[in-house]
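A favour, since you know our structure tokens better than I do. Would you make up a two-line entry for one protein for me to read? Write everything out right here, beneath this request.
=====
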Amino acid sequence: MKIFKKYYKSGFALAEVLVTLGIIGVVAALTIPILINKHQNAVALAGIKVAYAKINDGFLFMRSDENVDDLTNLSVFKNMNQDNFTDPDIQANLDSQMKKYFSILKSYKAGESCAECPIYVQMNGSLADGGQYDYAWRGFSADGMIYYMHLNGPQVATNPGKIKSLLAYFFVDINGTKGPNKWGKDMFQYALAQNGILYSAWGKDLSDAMPLSQTYWGRDASGCGSPENKDVSTSTGYACTARIIEKSWHIDYD
């Protein structure tokens, strides 16, 4: 007796495959942007921390070499103010000191044209002060960052405590000429006080010391959104450094 075995061919119907691919596509469309945003935030946060540490360390070594406690007495700041920072001798000293302590490969003094310096936008899409702004000094570092030094003083504190005055602001593009060249995304700012500590502009410490010139980001959503809202698309982004630091070094906005 012959026994016949019947074999059945198994597989998926075309409709089933298409449905599965459709589901995978929807899931990917939902998750990939989230993963990309998380990666971008992680890269940005690492850059913010590096910039913060390098500025702190640079001025710490400068203070140590010149044996001063108050940064106002540093040779780089001692005779420099808003009115005379373009003086050739002051600029030569500033440029020399910054190159020495910050591993600068290329720099631009005040008034020098910088065609490679990016033009920046705010979070809300409006144009911001770009690389052509009349900064006191600009430098491209060995690690690919751009440092912009802006003088707005020295500013004397209204309510002096640990902060008695501000000497300079540092705007740092953490990935150099690469995009998006946007405040709060790859452009961040810090404020250097006389005590050698680097603070975040729009932060609580500065707003307490200088309420007339410093706005606290937590009370003014125009800087980097409101504390309870992740949407910062209508803000300038100028206060996002303060938000990140005060949120325990965490980027909690979109």
